[in-house]
């Protein structure tokens, strides 16, 4: 396995973890809190932002090898992760248009990986 492939996987993993933290924030937003402070300072929100913080470090670590110009291509996988996780955890419907968009994103990532030697 090439170093570029391993670090690209780390960047995609960061995007997946970030997508999970978005699910946690959505779960938190569906609850009612007794005050604005509890709305923002509760275990779900703190966990989600801690995960976001960790993702920042994972991405920075991956950028040691992954070219900066390639980073947005890999991070686009987050759109796919969020849609799939929303479908799984919140039973949100996926329309044909969304599925087509996810296929285009996946194809774009695949083409980019192929041509960048990832």
Q: Write the element-wise H/E pattern from the N-terminal end onward.
A: HHHHHH
Shape: flat
Which structural class do the helices and strands define?
mainly alpha
Cα-to-Cα separation, first versus last residue: 10 Å
Number of helices: 6
Overall mean pLDDT stands at 93
Largest sheet: none
Helix content: over 70%
What fraction strand? Answer: under 5%
- List how many beta strands DSSP finds: 0
Radius of gyration: 16 Å
Q: Provide the low-confidence segments as ranges.
A: none
Number of domains: 1
List keywords for this structure.
118 residues; mainly alpha; flat
Structure, described:
This protein is mainly alpha-helical. It has one domain (3-116). The chain is built from six helices and no strands. It has helices at residues 3-29, 36-40, 43-62, 71-75, 77-90, 96-116. Helix 1 (3-29) packs antiparallel against helix 3 (43-62), helix 1 (3-29) packs across helix 5 (77-90) and helix 5 (77-90) packs antiparallel against helix 6 (96-116). The longest helix has 27 residues, at 3-29. The termini are close together.
Briefly characterize the structure.
By secondary structure, this protein is mainly alpha-helical.
Show the helix and strand layout.
Layout: H1 3-29, H2 36-40, H3 43-62, H4 71-75, H5 77-90, H6 96-116
Helix pairs in contact: 1-3, 1-5, 5-6
């Amino acid at each position: 396995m090439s170093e570029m492939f391993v670090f690209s996987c780390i960047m995609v993993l960061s995007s997946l973890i970030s997508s999970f933290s978005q699910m946690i924030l959505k779960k938190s937003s569906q609850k009612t809190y007794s005050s604005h402070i509890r709305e923002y300072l509760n275990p779900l929100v703190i966990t989600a932002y801690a995960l976001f913080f960790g993702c920042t470090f994972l991405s920075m670590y991956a950028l040691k090898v992954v070219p900066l110009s390639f980073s947005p291509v890999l991070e686009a996988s987050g759109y796919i992760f969020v849609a799939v996780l929303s479908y799984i955890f919140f039973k949100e419907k996926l329309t044909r248009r969304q599925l087509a968009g996810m296929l285009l994103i996946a194809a774009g990532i695949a083409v980019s990986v192929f041509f960048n030697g990832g």
